[in-house]
Amino acid sequence: MLQQQTIRTPVSTIGIGVHTGDKVQLTLNPAPQNTGIVFIRSDLTHRPQILADVNNVSSTMLATSLSENGITVSCVEHLMSALWSAGIDNLYIEVSSEEIPIMDGSAAPFIYLIKQSGIALQNAPKQFIKIKKAIEICTGDARASLLPFEGFKASYTFVYDHHVYNRYPKFAEIDFTKASFESEVSRARTFGLARDLDQAQSMNKCLGSSLENAVGIDDYNILNKNGLRYEDEFVKHKLLDAVGDLYLLGKSIIGAFEGYKSGHSSNNELARALLAQPDAWTLVSYKHKPIADQISPVLQPLAA
Ligand SMILES: [Zn+2]
User: What is the whole-number distance in angstroms between the Cα of residue 150 and the centre of ligand 1?
Assistant: First the structure.
């Protein structure tokens, strides 16, 4: 049987919140089987909990935010993509602020944190959402879809006419039965135009954003001294965001994701559209590990 997974021992890190600029402590703790991914606001009295669930998404402006009973945690998507990559089903995530720390703007520091703890197998079967029928949402000229596929693959088309973006690939497709999220995608950082950041900071937003945690671009150049981590880092970051946003479904998808100009809002709309159409998907679990190993290498416990 392919089993649910949590981490072995608590692990902590400190970073800054990209929007507030505040220092944030993040601690990952093991959670019992069938708990799901649960955020805990450790800075608030009674330590309120917020379940990672597509129906708890309360804002998709600049980042994905979750709210439950009026309590919010934002910037969850990069951490969620790391949890998907590590195959973590159950986890308590304590955070000392309204936002998950941005770290270096990618998912790699979170994968490193999970590896420090190690993976613990649990007794309950791991469940997957298997796509049976294509689902597509369109918002303006943005599109996102989920299609039947034996495994998990994701593709993205980045549409933005700009001197810098035009020099790099704007399409990526990765079949995660063959390629590793950790090596091919997880290091892709968030990115943006310096003039947009100046404008956001003048409105007291993105106060923690810097070249330490994003790829910055002016009219003609990448501003980071060491350039890009992947030639297609921009489009790969969009894939990273989509994987994290879709993992708010609470289960890994067996199917294919396709995004065209889509973002956090489209990703959430797509996940909600899927849940609203029960004949388009089914829950599956696997009795024998070899079958699941063919479905995705990311289901393998991470090496310590
Ligand atoms: Zn992102």
Answer: 27
